[in-house]
Design brief:
alpha+beta; Deferrochelatase; 9 strands; single chain; 9-stranded antiparallel β-sheet
């Protein structure tokens, strides 16, 4: 059987199986309005970690979905110059994603079916494993809108690019990308399997630019989840947007009609930053200084001068010496919405440890991911304030960066990732 016909059969078989599971999810709300469809697509946090998250919905899964414990993130460069080949790839990827997120093999023939003389349609390392809450979320980078595919006129204004921030030391080889896919799951083998198979399907049309494994989510995206800790030992993302915050998600997360790119309505923007932590230096820093840098106590996670983690922060409180309890250069003050014209982000970051650097120091830190309605008014001003003033900068270094437009969800088995962008 020839290569083209195998691809067509792969897509048809995957879409057909995916369609069988789509009937339970009714999709009919106005894009950008998080309603029952959003909650269904998110999956309840009380669900077993082996359960599947619905693939179809108004918005892509993997954004407000209660954050899973493991990440495999990948950025791709598109190597084909043919728009129809890009569209075919996205259709094949969508069909594979619909299958894998439900605990099935990537291809219609599976890992042991099909012609013995041909490579299998699935690499096989996830055979027998449950869906494990796998979500696959795609984004389109600014470079996809160059002159290769005739998409320049559809480039959204929010994808104009990020400014250079003070102190960053970005490595081009692990930054940017035409496309990205975020795989989150409760089992690392399930997440790695998904990215491996999508890369395999894309051979000859895309190449991997870089990828990142993550563990131990550093943000909660549901009020039912406890706030996790980063590798510095502090609770991270206390003020994060949550899937239950319907009105705030509408205002701060989902791209709406009139925002300047109709194909992106119901989608979002993703900013990624790989932030290396100087772990050894931090570990020799006193508790008092650590807490002053974050502006929170390390145990409970409460803001300094407060009792509980979620107490509303009063930045005017002063200590016995008359000085503000939360310093002007404390991380929590600089990042707080009240000091950034109300700007909020939905964060889905993960810890990473990539071995050591050859000098006995851990190559470790935070792979930061934040979704938002417009990075120009949300991430950019917040990060600029942090880059200029945050006392935490002594202990961290930003080494990679990415910006992606994340399209709305796939409505049904006849739809695919980016269809509104690529089709007239």
């Amino acid at each position: 059987m020839g290569e083209i016909s195998r691809r067509k059969l792969f897509g048809i078989g995957a879409a057909g199986v995916a369609a069988a599971g789509a009937g339970a999810l009714a999709v009919g709300a106005t894009a950008g309005e998080p309603t029952a469809e959003l909650v269904a697509n998110a999956a309840p946090v009380s669900a077993a970690t082996s359960d599947a998250v619905p693939f179809y919905g108004v918005h892509q899964a993997g954004i407000v979905t209660p954050a899973q414990d493991r990440l495999h993130f990948v950025a791709f460069d598109v190597t084909t110059t043919k728009r129809e080949e890009l569209a075919d790839l996205l259709q094949e990827w969508t069909a594979a994603a619909a299958r894998m997120t439900q605990g099935r093999e990537a291809g219609a023939f599976g890992a042991v079916g099909g012609a013995p003389e041909a490579p299998p349609d699935d690499t096989g390392e996830a055979l027998g494993l449950p869906a494990s809450g796998l979500t696959l979320t795609i984004g389109f980078g600014p470079t996809l809108f160059d002159d290769r595919f005739g998409l320049a006129a559809k480039k959204p204004a929010g994808l104009a690019g990020l400014p250079r921030f003070p102190g960053e030391a970005l490595l081009p080889e692990i930054s940017g990308g035409d496309l990205c896919i975020q795989a989150c799951a409760h089992d690392p083998q399930v997440a790695v399997h998904a990215i491996r198979n999508l890369a395999r399907i894309g051979f000859g049309r895309v190449s991997v630019r870089y990828s990142q494994l993550g563990f131990g989510r550093t943000s909660s995206t549901s009020r039912a989840q406890a706030t996790p800790r980063n590798l510095m030992g502090f609770k991270d993302g206390t003020a994060n947007l949550k899937l239950e915050d319907t009105a705030m998600l509408r205002d701060h997360l989902w791209v709406a009609d009139g925002d300047g790119a109709d194909w992106l309505t119901g989608g979002s923007y993703l900013v990624t930053r790989k932030i290396r932590m100087h772990i050894e230096t931090w570990d020799r820093t006193s508790l008092t200084e650590q807490e002053a840098i974050f502006g929170r106590n390390k145990g409970e996670g409460a803001a300094l001068g407060h009792q509980k983690e979620f107490d509303e922060i009063d930045f005017t409180r002063k200590g016995p010496d008359g000085m503000a309890l939360i310093a002007d250069d404390a991380h929590v003050r600089l990042a707080h919405p009240s000091n950034n014209k109300g700007a909020r982000l939905l964060r889905r970051g993960y810890n990473f440890v990539d071995g050591s650097d050859g000098l006995g120091r851990l190559d470790a830190g935070l792979f930061f991911m934040a979704y938002q309605r417009d990075p120009r008014t949300q991430f950019v001003p917040v990060q600029m304030a942090l880059a200029r003033q945050d006392s935490l900068n002594e202990y961290i270094k930003h080494v990679s960066s990415g910006l992606f437009a994340v399209p709305p969800g796939v409505r049904d088995a006849g739809d695919y990732w980016g269809r509104a962008l690529l089709e007239p």
